[in-house]
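job 3f2a | input accepted
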Amino acid sequence: MDSIGVNEQTPRQIVEELNKYIVGQDEAKRSVAIALRNRWRSRQLTGSMQDDVIPKNILMIGSTGVGKTEIARRLAKLVKAPFIKVEATKFTEVGYVGRDVESIVRDLAETAVRMVRQQRMEAVKEKARELAEERILDVFVPEPKKSQNPLGRLFGNDEEDSSEEKKEEPKYQAGREWVRKRLKNGELEKEIIEIDVEESSKPMVGMFSGSSLEGMGDNLQDMIGSLMPKRHKKRKVTVAAARKIFAQEEAAKLIDMDEVADEAVHVAERSGIVFLDEIDKVAVKGNTSGADVSREGVQRDILPIVEGSTVMTKYGPVKTDHVLFIAAGAFHTAKPSDLIPELQGRFPIRVELKSLRKEDFEKILTEPQNALLKQYKALLAVEGVEIGFDESAISRIAELACDVNEQSEDIGARRLHTLLEKLIEDVSFDAPDLADKQVHIDAAYVDEKLSDIAKNRDLSQYIL
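job 3f2a | predicted structure (464 res):
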């Protein structure tokens, strides 16, 4: 089983994987790939050198819709490490309304615990499945109740009880083995049974959020949960569903949560990745007054975490010295130099993501594994409609996306979503009733549906 936080991929392999979903932005992909590889290299070092080598944080600069967040999302799936994405705008300086910045580290610890717990549960999956089957057998063939004779017990006369038990045991075992055979053959999967399950405690959402008491609220909630007895409830489910429920419960019993917490803290400290989005929204231009004071306060609060500090979580203290931070922002109105100098210095690798051109839009429509045209084809195929786009149509859509981006706000690839939605609106609406289930879209069709929007600047501003 792969260890969590150990990414064996070479930089070239990481870039190839990102290329499946993200068009262009080679410089950003290379920087991210090198940063991940350096994490792996630092693990191979020994002694004090391993502690001295800290990750070089990355600052991505680029307008909206060019792929900053998509790189983060795909990276999260690619790396086997605790990864969280947070918006800097969620946090405000202590004393103002907003979340406490230390919740970033608490969330990272939670993610690490979830990953380690899942890995441990996978390791005991087979044993848990066996125990789950025994619990299902207990439902079908309950254990015979021992007859209790109060007078016999009082005078020590238990022979009658033991003889009855001997008579019932073979019959009970025979019935159990017969049901076990039927279970293995899959004959009982759809049978409805009544089971007794542990009721999961509902988190007190929002009770402590938005204040520095957030972490204390988590601990208080756990303490109350441990004092309260576990509540059980009856549920009627199929045997197949019961097997999943019981397997989860049994796997949870087989793992030691204290060990999980210890390992998770270590993994979060050594391999954690934090993607800090919208960092430009807390940058301050010129003199600080009013809301700008709060923005600068957010930067000052984020600084110790990025620099390296110890944050108390309910799983123990977590040091952030070796956590990799990737910050991103459009920087339309502010510049990276508007961030406080101390924070700028903590993001030594600067990557500028380029605005998308017509060729990029054409690739985005067709090449990625989740390309927009592939999505629309799959959606309409559900209704039996086969939709085709020729090259002239793809070229025209890309051209229109560029034009509208230039005329109004440049929102990158997101422009394609609304143009395509408008283009296929009629087909989507009429799909269930179409007599001809084959729809061919060419440049003339695109012009008919979208040219008014491109020509009329007032209208194009409403097409996001």
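job 3f2a | Residues 162-167, 204-212 have pLDDT under 50 and may be disordered.
job 3f2a | closed
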